[in-house]
Amino acid sequence: MTILLMDGFEQAISIDCRAYPARSVDEPEKDKVMRGSRDGFVETLVFNTALIRRRIRNPNLTMEIFTVGEISKTDVVISYYKGRVDEAMLKDLRKRIKNIKIDSLTMNQESLAECLYHRPWINPFPKFKFSERPDTAAAAILEGNIVILVDNSPAAMIIPTSIFDIIEEADDYYFPPVTGTYLRLSRFIINIVALLLIPTFLLLMNHPQWIPPRLEFINFAETVYVPAFIQFLILEFAIDGLRLAALNTPSMLSTPLSVVAGIVLGDFTVSSGWFNAECMLYMAFVAIATYSQASFELGYALKFMRIILILLVQIAGIYGYIAGIIFVIVLICRNKTISGKSYIYPFIPFHWKALLRNFCRVSLPTSEKR
């Protein structure tokens, strides 16, 4: 610590001059864009605040620092823009951070999120948006949101966020409005298809008489010994197993592992009669579609809902399919943002202009000014 004394002032300024080993600013691994800035947050809190201030050079940008953890003494910063932030939510957030009683925040934002806001475990849909991009964090601040930065974490936590905010990505604004709208709508459609494709296919396979004559080609070409719903459940867990294996595999071996897993195992399971080729095809599409949006939390939420739909379809047929869709809709509708507002605004309550901006990337001159 350094103490700054100035002639004529009765108080001194305490300056934190601590220096730790730091990683240089680089492109984030998760929130990559086709066009746009290539800098990303790092594990050093001071660097992260500087990346945001570089984009918002205004005295109304405020950053408040707190210390959380009886043992770790982890620095936590809340960043917001005066005049645009929800003052009631900001006051409540300050109170919650000050009242946290925990030994450490070594697991960064997720530990902080669980301490700040307790949520029912049965609802997996995320209440926070995590981003490793400073431009995304700066844009969220200017929209009136609060950005939480935790020391030792290369990501920002944005609150409050609806499901539309979580699906929205920086690429939507680095391209012209028509292209940005196409990318955004594609993301919505792909996620809906990823949720419903396999349960719908399983329903039709269990009731082949419902398949129209023009779509009979989607039926199984061969009969195997493993039931279709068991195949899908095994593949759901197998994909996660491959993902975990890839994370723990040295980079020099990741390509051979992908070849072995994708080609050798896939071809063997089909040729040996364990799996249908159609099941492998649709599950491969779902696995790729999971990465169409950057939120791992939303991806796993859709995965859990898809597994529930598969089980309900196998147990109750069309009634289970309808009940599963209603269950997903109810979970999303009953979810609330951190500020207590609707998770699916502007659907509920309905606001036409806001809904248009969520689905279509309007040009900046025609968007509403604050």
Low-confidence stretches: none
Q: Shape, please?
A: elongated
Helix/strand/pairing class, anyone? alpha+beta
Radius of gyration: 24 Å
Q: What is the tally of helical segments?
A: 11
Q: How much of the sequence is in beta strands?
A: 5-15%
The string of secondary-structure elements, in order, is EEHEEHHEHEEHHHHHHH
Sheet with the most strands: spatial strand order: 3-4-6-7-5
Helix content: 40-55%
Q: Give the strand tally.
A: 7
> What is the straight-line distance between the termini?
41 Å
Number of separate domains: 2
Report on the biggest sheet: 5 strands, antiparallel
Quaternary status of these chains?
Answer: single chain
Report the mean per-residue pLDDT as an integer.
87
List the SSEs and their pairings.
Layout: E1 2-4, E2 13-15, H1 45-55, E3 61-68, E4 74-81, H2 87-98, H3 109-116, E5 129-131, H4 134-142, E6 146-150, E7 156-159, H5 163-167, H6 177-206, H7 228-247, H8 251-271, H9 277-289, H10 296-334, H11 352-359
Could you explain how this protein is built, in words?
The protein is of the alpha+beta class and 370 residues long. It has two domains: 16-161, no CATH class; 177-334, no CATH class. Helices cover 48% and strands 9% of the residues. It is built from eleven helices and seven strands. It has helices spanning 45-55, 87-98, 109-116, 134-142, 163-167, 177-206, 228-247, 251-271, 277-289, 296-334, 352-359; strands at residues 2-4, 13-15, 61-68, 74-81, 129-131, 146-150, 156-159. The protein has a five-stranded antiparallel beta sheet with strand order 3-4-6-7-5, with helices on both faces. A two-stranded antiparallel ribbon has the order 1-2. A hairpin with an 8-residue loop joins strand 1 (2-4) and strand 2. It is elongated, with a radius of gyration of 24 Å.
